[in-house]
Description:
Number of strands: 5
CATH topology of the largest domain: Rossmann fold
Number of helices: 20
Organism: Kitasatospora putterlickiae
Largest sheet: 5 strands, parallel
Oligomer: single chain
InterPro entries: AAA_22, ExeA_AAA_ATPase_DNA-bind, P-loop_NTPase
Distance between the termini: 60 Å
Protein name: ORC1/DEAH AAA+ ATPase domain-containing protein
CATH architecture of the largest domain: 3-Layer(aba) Sandwich
Amino acid sequence: xxxxxAASSALADVLPVVSxxxxxxxxxxxxxxxxxxxxxxxxxxxxxxxxxTERTVWRWIKAAKDEGRTDRRPRPRLELSQEAWTxxxxxxxxxxxxxxxxxxxxxxxxxVPSLPTVHRMVKRDLEAGRELPSRQVADQARTRQxxxxxxADLALERPQDGGAAAVPRIRPAPGEPVGPDPLxxxxxxxxxxxxxxxxELSGVPGVVLPAGGTVVGTQAVRQVAEALGAAVAVDxxxxxxxxxxxGKTVAVQVGLGAVEPSRRVLWVQAPVRSSVTELRRAVFxxxxxGEHGRFPHRSAQADARVLSSLAVPAxxxxxxxxxxxxxxxxxxxxxxxxxxxxxxxxLCGAGSERALRRLPQLAxxxxxxxxxxxxxxAAVAETVSAFHPLWRVLTSQDLAWxxxxxxxxxxxxxxxxxxxxxxxxxxxxxxxxxxALLRGLFQxxxxxx
Length: 449
């Protein structure tokens, strides 16, 4: 008994200064388990370090083996519909009025979130940048919608009076010089293919942009290029991650443009619900080995041909790498570790860094971890003006307002908004370029939240 008490006391002296999160702990326990060295002592110490029970740690290990999941299972997120936000705006921001509306309109048998939950949902979206529409703005939007529908029903020509818009045209800030008509300036810019500001890059193969758009060499693009260069130089692994729509794939394509011509660049799209067989076939096709015969029926033959081809230096880019389960990651690790292979591996995708946690052996081989962040607010005006000439006619204040209301630093949203605005202005040149028009286009960028 004295020995047990002494051991527990010694352990208590160490563990209070040890803190570990679930993914790191599970990854380490799985590594020990793969070597056959996992014991109940490891689980007990890990449970105390994570401030959970031993039974909980065993459940974590089982979930990682069965589901490939080291994090907590995601819970469904409650969202407020556009109709709910309209009701909230008409109620002057009173959440209790919205809660009464939700209870009155809920289908029979369905559950309605509690009032504190609705308060948290509204607060969460407001802190994320959503603006609560005022009662006057909501009424004006509803009136404009009824008027547009009436005009469509009557098949009349759209009235051309300048006071149709609820918000005045976007104009330069006070003190700035007033230039020519924005639409006319934009039309001349597109027609003459005006040279773009410094920092722009020429067209990148494989990158699809809106008409007139150009890839911009942002700080994130340069950082990704540096990370890729470090990994390729030593035939290592590079992980490019970040939320969806931030431009990870484009940054990788730009960065790989500097790879020496003697090194092949191979692109593989990770299949949905990937299996090793599907990934092996994708790598086989990327190497163009199918030209010399059909895909072998035996995996050993396919691997032999792949490894023989990788004797020539190559860069293998796996896009959407977050889809890869542990067996697929082990297959890629095997390609990288083969003595005769000259291969640099690039894993790209939103969540690819979490996928690598499932296989610590491969994660330890990553030479560079590079996140692609949101576009900083201070760089929005310069970047989007270089991206497309359509945005050069607006002031930095207007561009900051658009980014706050809709894009929030996500480059894909800016590209989609450019396409919608280009289409709207091309359809009717007389359309006023004002905030009322932009608010209508914002609604096309995503479903109601």
